[in-house]
Amino acid sequence: MKKILSVIFLFTCLQNINAQKIHGDEFANTFSIVARDSITGEMGVAVQSHAFSVGSIVSWGEAGVGVVATQSLVKRSFGPDGLKLLKEGKSPDEVVKILTESDSGREVRQLGVLDMQGRSASYTGKRCIAVAGNHADKNFSVQANMMLNDKVIPAMTKTFKETKGGLAERMMATLEAAQEAGGDIRGKQSAAILVVKPVATGLLWEDRYIDLRVEDNAEPIKELKRMLTLFRAYEHSNFGDDALEKNNTVLAEKEYGIAEKMLPNDVELKFWHAVSLVNKGNVHDALPLFNFAFKADHNWALLVPRLRKSELLICDDKMEKEILEVK
Q1: Helical H runs in 23-166?
Q2: Range with the lowest mean pLDDT among 12-16, 35-39, 48-52, 182-186?
Q3: Cα–Cα distance between 6 and 306 in angstroms, integer?
Q4: Based on the number of CB atoms within 10 Å of its own CB, is 162 exposed (0-12), middle (13-18) or buried (19 or more)?
Q5: What one-character DSSP code corresponds to residue 125?
Q6: How is the chain split among helix, strand and coil, in percent rounded to 5?
Q7: Which helix (H) or strand (E) holds 112?
Q8: CB neighbours of 2 closer than 8 A, spacing ≥ 6?
Q9: Hey, CA dihedral for 100, 104, 107, 112, is it positive or negative?
Q10: pLDDT of 19 over the 80 cut
Q11: What pLDDT is recorded for position 230?
Q12: Which residues lie across from 32 on neighbouring strands?
């Protein structure tokens, strides 16, 4: 009899869930963090789940406003609506209260909200799949559901508080800690990090400082960490380009050096470093970098005259020949 009642209960729950999904709700049973860097003012969301493309569902943020993570049986409108309420001056506590009280499906929702002042609030509905919970603190909130055990939330809390470095790196460490503690009971599939700037410029491509997603991968957190390293390396390379444009060769070489140390075998970084050096008249230091690129793939050599024709590589015939004959 107990087995029959259990089956009936499960069937009823699935019917209710399916009815809600018809109205646009999606599963994103997961663990996430919304956080703020108290020094830079940057705000971000980091998330991992055994669900496809979790970042496109859970993560929401706006520079100069705040960040939102909406998960469990996701109500996507919580993202934009939460940001709108923050922009209107509502506190995270008020935002969570307004959104959940107006939602008939609130018992299957989970929500994390943080504003530009570092205030946070979070919510876990009573029907979120165990192990589920949340912890809101100054400058961050962590939330998780369908976890293997009850160690995930404490591990996330401890790690974010104790980790040093940039906001993205601290959130990355928090995801790693959650996974090491047990993570999603179903395993791993996708992960994402979103970081927005503290002050809005009105230009989305500038306001979204970091926006990285791993949509489907056997080790999404490891892959996301690799992508974050790529992002930082190319960021230093860009700093090097900027410094070179301002004739600050010492700073340029420092930035290029950091980038190439982070990714010692990255052909792209070395090639464009070489191009930048030639454009500033330093062919001597550029040649070994061109040599590295050409040995990796001869197509980089084919690109040289094309760049010159587009005036992206500034050199004469003699210099071009020297570059292409480099050994």
Answers
A1: 55-58, 78-87, 92-101, 152-162
A2: 12-16
A3: 69
A4: exposed
A5: -
A6: 50, 20, 30
A7: strand 109-115
A8: none
A9: negative
A10: no
A11: 97
A12: 47, 143
What are the C-alpha distances in Å from 282 to residues 257, 273, 324?
A: 16, 11, 16
Residue 4 has pLDDT above 50, yes or no: no
Residue type (1 letter), 34: V
Question: Quick one: average pLDDT of 75-88?
Answer: 97
> Which SS3 state, helix, strand or coil, does residue 110 take?
strand
Give the pLDDT mean for 295-301: 96
CA distance 184 to 36: 24
**What are the Cα distances from residue 69, in Å, to 35, 126, 308?**
10, 18, 47
Question: Cβ(34)–Cβ(121) under 8 Å?
Answer: no
pLDDT at 24: 52
State how far the Cα of 117 lies from the Cα of 74, in Å rounded to an integer: 26
CB atoms near residue 151 (< 10 Å): 16
* pLDDT single digits (tens) 99-122: 999 999 999 999 999 999 999 999
Residue 8 is predicted with a pLDDT of 37
Measured distance CA(99)–CA(121) in Å, rounded: 12
Q: From CA 240, how far away is CA 282, in angstroms rounded?
A: 14
Query: What local confidence, expressed as pLDDT, does residue 11 receive?
Result: 38
Q: Is residue 202 left, alpha or beta, with left meaning phi > 0 and alpha meaning psi from -120 to 50?
A: left
Which residues have C-beta within 8 Å of that of residue 152, sequence separation ≥ 6?
A: 31, 131, 144, 178, 181, 182, 183
What CA–CA distance (Å, rounded) separates 289 from 150?
A: 51
Higher pLDDT, 183 or 327: 183
pLDDT for residue 204:
87
10 Å Cβ neighbour count for 208?
A: 15
